[in-house]
């Protein structure tokens, strides 16, 4: 591996209540493209967990397959991780959470992973209100297979091939709300000031917490006409014999006030309009949350912030009335009913 | 006219309409014989619908204790006009055809070599009951009462059974006994009875029980310590989780708090069900799912992950007739290959083949020990015949001194002591590595579980030598597994022979009956029942030590034979197939016929594909 994380840390890095520095929450160095929004989200996760003073080993980081799903390697190196199969992270988390309710389950997924192959599991984990944080790193395209449209790509948006998407987009926040999710938020990868508190709130929420994070793809969210496009770079790179050159890009960041709208320019020169939820909006009403999102979508904005939260949420363990003691701590003496019960059963079968 | 005469040895087949409540009446008949001390083998042959189509219930009674299907029908009790033509055709020469003669029998169906017995079931019901539902339900009970007279059964056994069956619903006891008496009295007064076939109280049952394999597996999961069940309903496996739920509620709910020491999640599909099992097992709970062939197809991707990432997983496959949706309510052993090599890439899965309810219970409980010890999926391969039919079985037993084998899990203390931890390090030389549960230790023991290639410390790598090292270790682990799975059972023939049979699962009972029959004719065959895949060296030696081995199985493509050839590289000439794949359980007559055809030489073929199985229904 040519990349290595430097061991040196500033001796006066701030420590949290557990005495851990932020470095204790970091993972391996990222192998995503330089400037990828996903890395910013990883950074926000690190910051949120550090600030909340969560023991890193009490977090289970779970994912499916794809660029986003690779990211758990890049944060929380002292936590157990699980990189499952494409789109099927929610079921693995459901089982894991059933086995041990004492851990914090942090699922990371992408728009391909969640909105296509994993749409079924996403819908059902939301409706079961599993106690987990579900972060979607949403860039509207498939990075690992070189830029096909995903199901969250907007109708009319142009892929790297130059074709305009002819299908309507799936809005994950609306879907989650309709499926019964009890915490729904949207943010932008470059807006740490907004994203970090949202992650903290999601971790504290008891039940299913979705954060859909718009996270631009530096390599594939471009168009054929752009001089910064992949096509353009590749054409020029081929002259030097390099066939798989990914341009280094800067991370896009932004900072704006609640209740205001802000235009963010992406790597390809296109732009998106973010609207940060006003503090006056009521995030405790599911119907108005849906309406707010729809109103902003119609206006061409992406509504960001905490869109909905059910303060009285009952998670899956509450509904199933599972024991307080984690099921994975039970052993023979707790679980085995003994031979006498079998004798009684045998007697009833004659 | 010839009349079949026998005591405690016959096959009776009930032909009913699905959804009319006949199953419980037929079951009452079988259970009464069982209580009279007679070995019985009831088999439900039902359609994949809820109401209206023909359904059959076949009961084999055998003083000698043969519990498989024999083949042929001695008594047909037909109350379904839709299937009457077929039902009367199936009766053996000299056998008995009992029908509802409220309407006269269609003369075109008449057979002169069969004893025809008419009982006006509908007329009796119409005279006795005004409510249409009662007319329908009690018609079935009336024919059980009639049979009691025709077969000279102990009537008190039936009335006692009714009393036991409706304990808690006392209002139903007298009406049911009355219906039994209606049938009984009509026959006594109007027909010659008993007929040539009769039953006599016996003592061949001992302490045995009558239980279906799915319930036994549900109980096995409880005794094996399963705390998480994730499943998606599919025939014929649904009743496994139903049984688990029924019994686990009795023993694992804290009476004070109402808290449950278990979690059952009905998943949205089979992909999700197996994903939940893998997640729970990864996190240190014992978890299982139950499914059938179509579910195995859907679960395959996840099974590959569990194999490669080495996550304990318990999966119960109650097989039915495929391919595709096939015949959902008919039995087969046709998932053997898809389960053995489930998922893409070089994958091998551990299979267990129980043959009785007792073994379903034992293997069910044991599978959790195996899964955790071996850190790999364990697939219990049963089938509809064993799973959904009552089978006579040894009683269930548990050794109260037995503790679960939780396998190689590194504790917080061991990690604290600084023992080197690498998730895929072969420390003990048995190719099974240590794992840690998430949250075990603040600083040590965390690792990344993934389906991608990794090194011994679970770090992602695409280096060829690391990948090969891992895959070769998994092959060595396969050898270790052979020491842990149930060994095969051998029955040596009375006379020395170089020909043998090999069978597994529900083919056992019919196979053994067939071997007894062939021995009487001077054909002696050694027998082996394979109980697990990977096959151990005994299986190899057994085949090597015989010139020819018949592999008896219930599928078209001789799947176990293929597996034996693939694993041991036997040539096709060594192994001959005896097959049945019409969706009904293989019968002893069918097996005998096929073996005799092979042994006569004329039809021996080098490849099983050119050999046709016994005719449907045999």
Automatic annotation (TrEMBL), chain A:
GO terms for biological process: cellular respiration; small molecule metabolic process. Pfam families: TPP_enzyme_C. Residues 65-213 form the Thiamine pyrophosphate enzyme TPP-binding domain. GO terms for molecular function: oxidoreductase activity, acting on the aldehyde or oxo group of donors, iron-sulfur protein as acceptor; thiamine pyrophosphate binding. The keyword S-adenosyl-L-methionine does not apply. Keywords: Oxidoreductase. The keyword Hydrolase does not apply. This is 2-oxoacid:ferredoxin oxidoreductase subunit beta. It comes from Halioglobus maricola. The lineage of its organism: Bacteria, Pseudomonadati, Pseudomonadota, Gammaproteobacteria, Cellvibrionales.
From TrEMBL, chain B:
It comes from the Bacteria. The keyword Ubl conjugation does not apply. Pfam families: POR (PF01558), POR_N (PF01855). Residues 220-387 form the Pyruvate flavodoxin/ferredoxin oxidoreductase pyrimidine binding domain. GO terms for molecular function: oxidoreductase activity, acting on the aldehyde or oxo group of donors. SUPFAM superfamilies: Pyruvate-ferredoxin oxidoreductase, PFOR, domain III, Thiamin diphosphate-binding fold (THDP-binding), TK C-terminal domain-like. Keywords: Oxidoreductase. Residues 19-184 form the Pyruvate/ketoisovalerate oxidoreductase catalytic domain. GO terms for biological process: response to oxidative stress. NCBIfam families: OAFO_sf (TIGR03710). This is 2-oxoacid:acceptor oxidoreductase subunit alpha. It comes from Halioglobus maricola. The lineage of its organism: Bacteria, Pseudomonadati, Pseudomonadota, Gammaproteobacteria, Cellvibrionales.
